[in-house]
Amino acid sequence: MAIRDxxxxxxxxxxxxxxxxxxxxxxxxxxxxxxIHLDAVLTVGQPRHNLTGSLFEGIAIWGERVKDLTxxxxxxxxxxxxxWQVANGVLxxxxxxxxxxxxxxxxxxxxxxxxxxxxxxxxxLVAFPQQGILSFPDGEALMRQAxxxxxxxxxxxxxxxxxxxxxxxxxxxxxxxxxEHGKPVDIHCDETDDDHSRFLEVMVAETIRLKxxxxxxxxxxxxxxxxxxxxxxxxxxxxRRAGLHMVTNPLDNAVLQGxxxxxxxxxxxxxxxxxxxxxxxxxxxxxxxMDPWYPLGYxxxxxxxxxxxxYGQMSGYEExxxxxxxxxxxxARTLGLADYGLAPGCRADLVLFEAPTEIDAIRLVAPxxxxxxxxxxxxxxxxxxxxxxxxxxxxxxxxxVAAKG
Length: 405
Ligand code: FE2
Hints:
Shape: globular
CATH topology: TIM Barrel
Distance between the termini: 25 Å
Low-confidence stretches: none
CATH superfamily: Metal-dependent hydrolases
CATH architecture: Alpha-Beta Barrel
Helix content: 25-40%
Number of strands: 16
Strand order of the largest sheet: 3-12-13-14
Strand content: 15-25%
Bound molecules: fe (ii) ion
Radius of gyration: 21 Å
Structural class: alpha/beta
Mean pLDDT: 96
């Protein structure tokens, strides 16, 4: 591969300024994080730990922590996680930001950060009404204010509104607001085990009515796990018809869904395989990093992909490869990124893995040896070296058996 002036070109110069020997390692475009909540990252344990690990205890704890938010606090935590993401090869991030705050503190903080990091990371901010639009005082006005202030994307949370009617109206409000301002939509939709939560169909209908195809994303949609198959089948074909992008978040949803079940406990996950088979663009998000809902993680999409391989039963040969698409090209389509990919003319935003194939990358959650932004190295990782004493002699251990075969 040849790079000139920050872009991929068809042929290398006769005497390139610099060359990198890839040794047959996997090279992908920069990773894309389509769903994270940067305003809440690194707050785990503040002011107390979530002892049950449940969504509702998480919401209660966040309700306490949110009172202490300042611009400096949000920026410092978000910037730390953005650095982790860059080290993991992520150069494009869509973050939801809670706007149920009359001061819009978190949004102001992340708008500042968005400008400060823009040469390295492209940050899209979603106006996300954590406590609802119609169910929160002045919710509609706050959403409008957030868009005027500079949110890139309009969100909603219909399943959390007080009534089904509010939920439906919140979707229509958010999508009309987006249409009015020429913004994309990304809605936390049906993130519940309740099979009566059916707001995705409202998103489909509104996308068609407002002619927003290609600009609308539904995140989570975990209730789809519990719908009857006839309803889910019809819904999936309509999702395809409306051209919605879908984001699945296996880390958070693996631990948060199914909490009201006795055995057998549902996985509570959207129907990834069926959506992909229907030709729907599905991508994979991390969601939380060390917050009241999910205490683990370091912002690595590969770790989320590793979990989806199990949790979504995507262990077939092609399915494991698809997981890499879900954190690169599929997520790039969701974010509407231009000039993204490995073709000549694309920006040279690249990741070189310490692994020869997509399958090894997932298997090993392999280190990102090099991360390039516009052709320049912006992150390096030295892989760990392992040695053991084996039958009396010191020997190296290399997990990449397949690479040698
Ligand atoms: Fe989320």
